[in-house]
């Protein structure tokens, strides 16, 4: 157990603030900027993120920089004790660049080149774009590297998308040459002998396109394209990071992630970040549905924290409505505080918003903000924010604390890419992410802390040693080393849980031969002969321990080999065949759940496993549904966050006393760590 | 109260007829054309529209005209006493023009140029297209300007769509220079500082494109593009109108509109028309749903009439099935007469059809027509048409009469463009048009005549003086002068009704600062702090006058400032807060309805207002549901049209007697105007 | 009654086997190929299809052939007594060809050219593609023409799609010049006078495009484009067939069809095939829905057989899940045998699969196969296949037997093209194919054998003489000669059944004048004045013989002229008007059903007709629902196949005894033909 350093060394507090766009208010800056400072302080804000999307303001014409306005803003912030999260402006280009250098515009899967517009719409391979990026980032670092307000570098914004231009095609081929020793190896790995797809020359390889328009049937190609796209972002991050690193080596750098955004493997990208940050926009409804939304948001926080196993930044969240949702619902009373403390509970050392002051025009003009168009501190939302500021100010002890977990749940981008692309079972609707979260939620409802890791971490030497339970729902793809590490984990005494659709393909999305679950067949002691797909209204059952639990969607027909059968199917032509098994192996146990189940089964099953393994619960109590408890600790003091995601009150009766939580209510308890 | 001149000076009757395409029947013209005249007369038809889409027949090769067939047709019509609505043929080009001059083909939002095909598929900026238009229109006007059959010029057909070619881009930039004094002013109005969108040069501005493909996030740009598109049609109309005006100054010119077609601001286009005409295709079901369909059709008639505040032409309607609907239902008995008299009741001086004789091929070959493929007068549809002919012939007194209204409902294209584009609330699903019609219907069910006006008319000096009640549902955008005119209207004693989502943005779709409803805050006496969006199944309530009326979709959280609270919310965290208010101001009253309600609330609420203000009802009676009554008058005689949109009989008990209406039945009562 | 020769002269057995892709397993060929032979023999397999999609393996670089691996495979097959269905590889091109000759890539309706990728993605007009095809096919025929394994040529694979490149445009215009004597004739046939579409020059004609993008409103053009596309495939088939025919005149040639795939008129394509083959993938659910699925699969088998009136090949079917379905369900026990015997029952002399060994990569890697990734004979699926092998081996007597039918149901591609394109009634949702199958099913449930023919066969001299009953649901289009042949059939004593939507258009999709059903008006003795379209939930009724049968979707308002009224409408404004009529004409009867009905009406109505006409039933018994019986005969012996498509047992009590069928059970009875 360690206490990590604060993200900004000079600010030993939880950071509170958000995106701030003073460049939109230059016409009234004398009045507005000063008022902004007053309002920020009133709201307990100690950080503001500036410069995101400011390229046109900073470089209005090619090569002519205008830093005056930003000088003024940063000075004002420093005067008011507000730390700057200073952004590089590469999230959106000025129009002059697209005009002068059309190569910076992205090319789509259908090979049409975009027009200027939107944002995040540039080719990462473009030499011009990279050169312009270096120039502006260098200028920023030179000018503000020593500014007292500077706290964190915020590189670009929400990296995403992909480009299929000729420059990117060429880089893709280079990437492939690094991955495969020869074209023959690539052809074999991608199984191109089907449908006459064998490549006769590296130059024949093109990125995936759309159905009918071009190639999309080579799953190995599709998968490798996603890896390449991830590497493009890693490479571009390092590129734009270079001048910052050189000039301000002590200022931490980040880019804001987006949960399980499918376009980039964040486990890979996180390797090059100094600190991880992300943008969280749960869809709160104000109803009993928020328990599920809460579990999902917690999962995403835990995933983000697990990327680097240390405190992260909640870079963006909405203090009110999220404007881009089809139904832009207001936050109910208490919800803003709840979502803010939830982030901290799961490892965030910041609570930040998009945005501080609501803009007057453009597509985000109705997104929730600390200061509304109305302009005063007299709104409900402003008061909610100020309340959060007050609560965070009282939690300095939490800064840098750790979040120990006895359980790890596996979520893997490469696996997801392959499953999203699968032709078979339920095609694109296999529900991978939702299934992982359902398993996660069974621990969350017990107040059991959980890491979220991927195959690359599974295979990391020693990594699994810290866990008692490893849960890998739908572990469809086994990347190199994963099966071996899991087997060793079991043999050493770990408890492993796998499900249907495990061990089907290798890292190239090529099926294993010799019977599924492939390399995990000895570990799990089962052979999965076939998998049945059910229509949406169809139901089967798993009979376990006297109860018939509902099964649906996917039911695997397995043979227990060395495994013991715990539960069986209740219906259809495979009634009575094994549906739940355990394989005792070495000092550990490997469970296999053969079908998709409901939350009831998962709750009962994992409660049993938590009891059996002694995995730690935040509170020694059965939590009411929709309530979780999470711990942060420095090894000496525990900060227990109790969070109620129900629109009704909830009571926790634990050894330390009775805890009454209001609807959407929260409590933080300090206690000595035992 | 005035009696307007007949549309065709020499024909003091209601016009009855429709689109006629003799050019499709040239192969059998000796038999068919003569038979057409016999059948037309048999059906009581006194007008036929010819030449729509005849360009290929009139100019089969570039520069070679063939007028012989049209000479013959017009002579036949004159001989048979049938007035010609003569069309310019610009609704569709001959193929030779697209081949020789590809510039005439439209360019889409994705910047691809169309192929030849369809119709209405030409660039209005194209010099070639304009030159060809001038030539053919001049030739038509020269040849037929003195023809005895000529009654009305019908320019092109159902203007619509847009073009994004380079020529149009250039014209768009010119349009913008006329709208903004400087690029800086444009940048400020469009709030381009967000997402680095600031324009450094006029030439960088491009028309909106599609999501991801190009620009679509600058709402001011999107809005101005729609204004430009409207001006393109105005300009093109004037262009193709010029030779007609020069050669036949006394022949009225029109182009046929399409109700609330969103692509053109008809209030603007109507300014340049001599007479307004439109194409009405209600979807009748033959069930109790037709009450709602009837209200909607009436709204569209009233809107069309209000464009110029004088009688209009029903240029197209179907005497039977509308072929392009997914379910092309037959008209039930009586429905054809009902929809025809409905148009006249609301101010039409014509009942015209698409089409007279059903074509044998192409995509409209199954659209309802007076004469079917079968070819005789022995069809049900033909008899329905002949009945209408007979009824119209007895209503000469109605020609040119006025339609006085004490109530105006606001429907505004600019506002709609902005609301359709809004990111927030319920995004594209805010239901603006449907909401306006729901408010309209509450008056329609009472037999209260209603104008439909937009912000430009609100701001027109003196315009509001004629109304007792002004209703502006979701007045999201306040264009210059509107708020001032409304406030003056109230101060002078008017009754104004506004709702949630009022006064959010200015004419550039840029939010007002200082609290919504912006400039109307003093008029309405409320501050709208926040707006809650509800999921489709969610419900709240407005408690008013002892009843809990359902509220849904959008609930605004308002503060009554100078206003008095009449009703309050019934549920959720804002239960008890104001939901219905009135602000007594000057001699008038300004009501505010904070949430979307059902028809029950609107019926009760507006019945109260009609009683309070003494707004005129067509009949001094409570009308049964689904029945309306509308008046046309020359100031001396009232023509009261009673219309039953129910599949069941209805009875009206009014001071003049008892009126029994058959299912879908109609009655016209003459009475002295008091 | 004849016995046809076996498809492969030297193999007087039912063929059993499937697609085999040894080229995907060259890396492990020594082990895998030998094991394949062992497993094939174990499963009772006597044929394998090789070389489909092998172009890249056979010609890895332009002009360099590699036949060694195929030599080896064919030798192995010959050694093991396995007949080869040897494919030409034109279903997919190697990548080098697309690179070197982009003209081979298809152009879409939007006129964009595809990238390399997918399969079936080539221009049939391309001279380069045709030249390459000739070269490889010649090389194959030269090398393997005398190979003892060679049994059947399999040309390409599942022909489909279309190309809009300039070469194809030019060929299309040539096709049109062959169809129309002059441009004037084409303009009149296509009714181009509407919307100014008259063509001034052949060169102005372009293929149909998409809505708004280009032309799609000229229905005659759309229709002729489909005819052209069919002729493109006929022509290409003959082109690639030429070297095979020249070098191996005795080896039968086929290409695998796809049931009612809408893109090609299979009645036309079948004319140039030596033997018809098709790929059948019914969606079995394991529930009572399978009765309907079974009827549909039978219909498709009967259609395929009727194309040439002789035994066909079931070229592909799945022994397990069909991977590309949204829900890839496993076959329930017995279902694999059921679907295999079903094919034979309806005239197939083969049972073949896609595929023998499941591939490891690419988009078909989870499609059902005889040998799974697991690799042994110990799977359920392998055992199912082996069981089929055993059963087929016992049915040598069935080879070449005939399938006599007293009933013909009409299914017509040209008609379907027009109905799918119709604007009116229910637009694209008129349900033509489903309706035809509903009528077909009424006979299938009675065990009455049925041919499926189109208008071209109706008009074939003497063709109708073999039938007692001719059923033509929705005979919207009457191609030349069809009405005359039908009338003669009736006059000679036949029983003809027509429905609503009959006789609307001629072969150019141009309506008949003078009253529908056009040329069949005297035959049917009715005039169809109007057709009412119903909303999905609306219902009417046909009152016939004391029962009110449900009517829905489309209700035609007819006048009985010479016909006698048997049933009338039960509701709406046309209650009491004729809904079912019969016209006694010459020695026969022509029935008219005016509305779409449910299966109940069709069952009762056609039972009456079968009884009246004495049409032959396979068993003299009332079959339980979901059970059919079908006969194959050599004139001396009948092979009666009883097939139970229910998940429950069924009993047939017939004069020969009681037959008990297990769930999804089957039985084959031999009996002397009487
Ligand atoms: Zn690129
Ligand atoms: Zn243009
Ligand atoms: Zn082509």
From TrEMBL, chains A, B, C:
GO BP field: galactose metabolic process
Family: Belongs to the glycosyl hydrolase 42 family.
Beta-galactosidase trimerisation domain span: 405-613
Keywords annotated in UniProt: Glycosidase, Hydrolase, Metal-binding, Zinc
Keyword Nucleus: no
Keyword Hydrolase: yes
PANTHER family, alphabetized: BETA-GALACTOSIDASE GANA
Catalysed conversion reaction: Hydrolysis of terminal non-reducing beta-D-galactose residues in beta-D-galactosides
Cross-referenced InterPro entries: Beta_galactosidase_C, Beta_galactosidase_Trimer, Class_I_gatase-like, GH, Glyco_hydro_42, Glyco_hydro_42_N, Glyco_hydro_b
Entry binding sites for substrate: 119, 157, 324
Every Beta-galactosidase C-terminal domain range: 626-669
EC number(s) on file: 3.2.1.23
Binding site residues for Zn(2+): 123, 163, 165, 168
Annotated protein name in UniProt: Beta-galactosidase
Location of the Glycoside hydrolase family 42 N-terminal domain: 19-394
A Pfam family matched in the record: Glyco_hydro_42
Active site: 158, 316
Organism from which the protein derives: Glycomyces paridis
One GO cellular component term: beta-galactosidase complex
Domain of life of the organism encoding this protein: Bacteria
Gene3D superfamilies linked: 3.40.50.880, Glycosidases, Golgi alpha-mannosidase II
